[in-house]
Specification:
By secondary structure, this protein is α+β, with helices and mostly antiparallel strands. The protein is globular. It has one domain: 3-Layer(aba) Sandwich (Cytidine Deaminase, domain 2), CATH 3.40.140. The mean pLDDT is 92. It is built from five helices and six strands; from the N terminus they run H-E-E-H-E-E-H-E-E-H-H. The longest helix is centred in the N-terminal third of the chain and has 19 residues.
Length: 144
C-alpha cells in the first residue's frame, strides 16, 4: 500500500470508531498500523484528575509492545462534536518519544494545506537526541 492509501485506511478506521464510541459530543481515537498489518485502536482514558490522563495513542502503543509488533504508522483523529469536522493531531512530544522506539514510523500531522498527511516521525524532530548515537548503539532499545 502507498502512504496515501494507508493514511485513508487509518483515518477511516478512526472515524468509524469515533462515530460508534462517541455518537454525540467530543470524540477521539488513535489508530496504529503494525508491521504485521494489524490496526490497533485506542482512546484517551477518562479521569476526573487531569494529571492521571494519558494521550489518545498510549493504549495502542502499549498494545503494540504487548504483541511485540513494530509500529509503522500512527494517526490521532478528533472531533469537537458530532457536527464538527474531524481533525488530525500531530503527536505530542511524549508520544513522539514513545513512537521513536520503532524508529521508522510515519505519523499523521496537522497541516492546513492537507487535511490528511503522513510524515516520517524523524521529520518532526530533526535534532532528536538519538542522533548523538550510532544506529548500532540504539539497536539495544529496538531489538529487545
Amino acid at each position: 500500500m502507498q502512504q496515501n492509501e494507508i493514511a485513508q485506511v487509518l483515518f477511516s478506521k478512526a472515524k468509524t470508531f469515533i462515530e460508534n464510541r462517541y455518537p454525540t459530543g467530543w470524540g477521539g481515537a488513535a489508530v496504529l498500523r503494525t508491521v504485521n498489518n494489524n490496526f490497533l485502536i485506542s482512546i484517551a482514558i477518562e479521569t476526573c484528575n487531569a494529571g492521571a490522563s494519558l494521550c489518545i495513542e498510549t493504549g495502542a502503543i502499549c498494545e503494540a509492545h504487548k504483541l511485540d509488533e513494530a509500529v509503522t504508522h500512527s494517526i490521532c483523529v478528533v472531533r469537537d462534536s458530532e457536527k464538527s469536522e474531524y481533525k488530525v493531531l500531530t503527536p505530542c512530544g511524549i508520544c513522539q518519544e514513545r513512537l521513536m522506539y520503532w524508529d521508522d514510523v510515519y505519523v499523521g500531522v496537522t497541516d492546513s494545506d492537507s487535511p490528511l498527511k503522513l510524515v516520517p516521525l524523524r521529520d518532526l524532530q530533526p535534532f532528536h537526541w538519538s542522533k548523538a548515537y550510532d544506529k548500532k548503539d540504539m539497536e539495544f532499545y529496538s531489538n529487545r
